[in-house]
Amino acid sequence: MSFGSFDRGSSHNATNAEINMVPLIDVMLVLLVIFLITAPLLTHSISVQLPQASAQAVENEKKYLDLAITLEGELYLDNELVALEDLTATLQPYSAETPQPEIRIRADQETRYELLAQVMSHAKASGLARLGFVTRPDSTTAATPTP
Question: Total domain count for the chain?
Answer without folding.
Answer: 1
